[in-house]
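To assess whether the prediction recovers the assembly geometry, we first specified each molecular entity separately, as shown.
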Amino acid sequence: MIGSARDRVLRAALDLFGEHGVSGTSLQMIADELGVTKAAVYHQFPTKDEIVLAVIDPALARLEPIAEAAERRRTPAARRRVVLAGVVDMVVEYRRLSRVLSFDPVVSRLVRQHPAMTTVNRLVTLLTGTDPDGATRVDVAMVAGGLVLAGTENALTDLDDETLRRHLLTTAARTLRVRLSDG
Amino acid sequence: MIGSARDRVLRAALDLFGEHGVSGTSLQMIADELGVTKAAVYHQFPTKDEIVLAVIDPALARLEPIAEAAERRRTPAARRRVVLAGVVDMVVEYRRLSRVLSFDPVVSRLVRQHPAMTTVNRLVTLLTGTDPDGATRVDVAMVAGGLVLAGTENALTDLDDETLRRHLLTTAARTLRVRLSDG
DNA sequence: GTCTATAAGGGGATAGAC
DNA sequence: GTCTATCCCCTTATAGAC
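The predicted structure of the complete assembly is given in tokenized form:
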């Protein structure tokens, strides 16, 4: 075991959340995984919600720099490329987490209330432009859903990160009709 | 209230599962929604799992006819068109259900053990052909994930079923490079 | 940092009356 | 079909010793 007791809790939680979902993971399971008691876990975090937030925060924190980098570009096409590449990287890096992050009702509540949601909306606007039509909104929803699910799909675990990243980027760009090469 | 007591339970369960997830929905919540007690619900179904199965069965039952219709077509292109159209129809019809059906750890377990999984595999093979490469498998995973998520996306609830169906079909076909018109 | 012990509540499920 | 009452288990969370 490397890292502080706090880090050990977070690593165990990430593993268990990925396998059983947040609602399906009790503090007892986290404690058992570490070989300690529930009270020891409570010494590190005051509530279960705090553990969930600490697990998902690093992933959500990746979004803000993507939005800033995209907004520094001048053309809408370049902005779309930056958003797409950044989000794909993030999804691959947090493969195991994304399924849990998007669907568990507990996390859904925590994410809805999270400040990072404004960044998510900025990223969507960077992809769609303002006042998108129905077809464009469906395109973006398909890509968002596809990235999350494909990132966690068991059938794709044999692909290494770099291969998965490349395929996801190509497919997402085709769906959104974004050219990946500039000019 | 129209329908048998059993039907009322299933309708209430569908609503609550869609909103809170299966793990987040207790028998007490279902009973409260109907204005009865838990024991009355248990009179209709022996276990909670049985309720979940009864809710998802109609959606899973839609898959088999799609596979059969597709297999009656002679060209791979025609088969892909039939699978795509059928699955999109099913996703739209069961909009609220699909999120729950795909991600809740409880349902995930029930679906994995369900006989309809062999049909799912047949549909995937109809789309990809046998022995697909990594890029093709990512394409299919993206479309599957995108359909499920877009179908349940709150931001798209303003679209009526027919509009949503049309956009989903167009976008999914583009992602998979399937031509929707034959010939 | 970790322990034992316990509180307080909700979960699924059952027994038996009406 | 529905009720009351209950069982047993697991959950989050707290108190206080070491």
